């Protein structure tokens, strides 16, 4: 497993490569490429939407999300977002790459 750092960029799978279906408090994300359906909760759908088609750093994504959501302190927000992005990378919903 790769280790995220401040140079790590994340790129979400294209929106047309997945079907997103809200289901009460959870969201189903069907990944066309793998044929796998993921059941996720907040803030995952909001993160994928905020990423759009851009490769983003954790700080960039935190800034985008802060425009719509109360994220608390910057350190807490960065830690939470990093953790979620790494989980999404393991699921194949985002790719991680180095900015170096």
TrEMBL record:
InterPro entries: PqqD-rel_X
NCBIfam families linked to this entry: PqqD_rel_X (TIGR04353)
Name of this protein: HPr-rel-A system PqqD family peptide chaperone
Lineage start: Bacteria, Pseudomonadati, Pseudomonadota, Alphaproteobacteria, Sphingomonadales
